[in-house]
Amino acid sequence: MPFTVLLVDDEPLVRAGLRAVLEAQPDIEVVGEAADGAAVIPLVNRLRPDVVAMDVRMPLMDGIEATRLVLRTVPDPPKILVVTTFENDEYVYEALRAGADGFLLKRAKPSEIVHAVRLVAEGESLLFPVAVRQLASEYGTDRAREALDRAGLTDREAAVLRLMARGMSNAEIAADLVVGIQTVKSHVSSVLAKLGARDRTQAVIAAYESGFVAPG
């Protein structure tokens, strides 16, 4: 079955470009489009896409609020891929904090767009570029540092979190640590539970905000 994608952007040319790139792939199907975040919830409920490619800045409802609504109200919600013009935009960071799973620049090459959709759809790694890592570290707080200290991660869990923060998939982490994928999945689940994180994105943000992982 192909990965299904909903495109959300207020610029018709951007949607058309993304559709052309994605529909050229045999394993990706664009199932719908929306021009504003306000239209996302009914479309997600009706179309059940695997991925929503979400613009950040839109006139009625921006991608941050739309992301929050999707994750809060939709059972088994889709993955959210933030699509934006500026990589150091604080709106992007806020969207990731709201629960988006990855980040893509509108000027990305077709191959990068396809890779981003596949990566996010598979759900085992993150698109977390250097510019966003820097923003996360700048948002660091004593509360974030204290929360990570209280989590009491084991040495192996700490190693897994560092590799997650580098955007590595479970398979890549397993190869790096020379362990099985199921072992990595178990460690990832434990890290999320100890940090009180809903998903990998929140865990990685906690790692950068606490200073546990440095940007770069």
From TrEMBL:
It comes from the Bacteria. GO terms for biological process: phosphorelay signal transduction system; regulation of DNA-templated transcription. The keyword Disulfide bond does not apply. InterPro entries: CheY-like_superfamily, NreC/VraR/RcsB-like_REC, Sig_transdc_resp-reg_C-effctor, Sig_transdc_resp-reg_receiver, Tscrpt_reg_LuxR_C, WalR-like. Gene3D superfamilies: 3.40.50.2300. Keywords: DNA-binding, Phosphoprotein, Transcription, Transcription regulation. Pfam families: GerE, Response_reg. Residues 4-121 form the Response regulatory domain. The modification 4-aspartylphosphate is found at residue 55. SUPFAM superfamilies: C-terminal effector domain of the bipartite response regulators (SSF46894), CheY-like (SSF52172). The keyword Iron does not apply. One of its GO terms (molecular function) is DNA binding. Residues 146-211 form the HTH luxR-type domain. This is Response regulator transcription factor. It comes from Streptomyces parvus.
